[in-house]
Specification:
Length: 196
């Protein structure tokens, strides 16, 4: 029984890793480009991995996303800002690992309660916001002068500008994750319970 469970875990981990790789490599599948930044959809896959497989595997999938993002910043950037900031693993890798970890921990907290769907929605919303707030926050802290020059705005106006991006990109991404996570994760969890 334990071997079956491990095989299931590894199979799902492999499939979700492949999906994250595809989302990173196929245009418009993982990033919707906008001037200066991209709207991200990859976080939904990481959050679903965390809900189905747990925080550790969610962090692994998030790490795969971050490593691919880090490599792409050098060879095929997704935005003009990427070579400036995403070549730093603190900005490209760490927040993505934490997306999976935090989303998985939130769902674990809610999983045993009467309405686990609430936990899935919260995991989706909070996991998405972890990505947005950490990435933009680290850009603001570590690259305020470079980012201000790139966006051609006054340094004093950079943080309000980044907060505007949280509102225009981060909130829709969080709503998307909050909606899609229970829709996709619920049947996968049912399947997992039937075939332990």
């Amino acid at each position: 029984m334990q071997r079956k469970s491990n095989a299931y875990q590894l199979s799902v981990l492999a499939v979700l890793t492949a999906i994250v790789l595809l989302q990173n490599l196929v245009p418009f599948l993982g990033y919707i480009p906008l001037p200066g930044l991209s709207i991200t959809t990859i976080h939904v896959t990481v959050i679903i991995a965390a809900v189905i497989l747990g925080p550790r595997d969610g962090a692994i999938i998030g790490g795969v996303w971050g490593l691919v993002d880090w490599i792409r910043a050098f060879v095929a950037p997704t935005s003009p800002l990427a070579p400036i900031v995403f070549t730093n693993p603190l900005v490209s890798v760490l927040p993505r690992v934490l997306v999976g970890l935090v989303a998985g921990l939130i769902f674990l907290h809610w999983a045993k309660r009467p309405h686990p769907t609430v936990g899935m929605v919260l995991a989706g919303v909070v996991g998405s916001l972890v990505n947005t707030i950490l990435v933009l926050g680290l850009i603001g802290v570590l690259y305020s002068h470079a980012a201000a020059g790139f966006y051609q705005i006054n340094l004093a106006k950079l943080m309000p500008y980044l907060l505007t991006i949280v509102g225009t990109n981060g909130i829709p991404e969080a709503i998307l994750a909050g909606i899609l996570t229970p829709i996709i994760a619920t049947p996968l969890l049912r399947f997992k319970r039937r075939h332990p």
